[in-house]
What we know:
Blueprint: H1 2-19, H2 24-41, H3 45-66, H4 70-89, H5 104-131, H6 141-165
Helix pairs in contact: 1-2, 1-6, 2-3, 2-4, 3-4, 4-5, 4-6, 5-6
Amino acid sequence: xxxxxxxxxxxxxxxxxxxxPGPVHRWGPQxxxxxxxxxxxxxxxxxxxxxxxxxxxxxxxxxxVDRGGWNGVIDLAAMALLMVLMTGDVxxxxxxxxxxxxxxxxxxxxVLTVVAWMxxxxxxxxxxxxxxxxxxxxxxxxxxxxxAYRESGAALMIISMGAMLV
Length: 166
């Protein structure tokens, strides 16, 4: 299980790296998400879930103001739900003790969360393709690299968190 936890932390770090450098309103939620994952690693799942929830709310506010950028909201909402599912299974043994005894309802909800997350992210990609970008406006290599960090980090983080519950 420690491999999945390490993968989740690495994913959160990749997401943060994909938003740096830049203004704090862009990378702040990802910093909170990394902190939430670190709290989870330290057997403080409830505190981690609260921090992830705050990051999600911050990200929603930013997306509403910027009129876009909903991928981060989708990622953080899935993280928050998965963390809440983890708190429901945690007994006195911490987050690592529940992995063998995860309830069927939590495992099913985790799978549903990951599937809904993948569907929402795929829909975002499809809508971006449909809206189209004028030809000849290929983003700079640093922009593509930041996008790759964010996307791969999100996938690594959400899938590893879901796998912890299954």
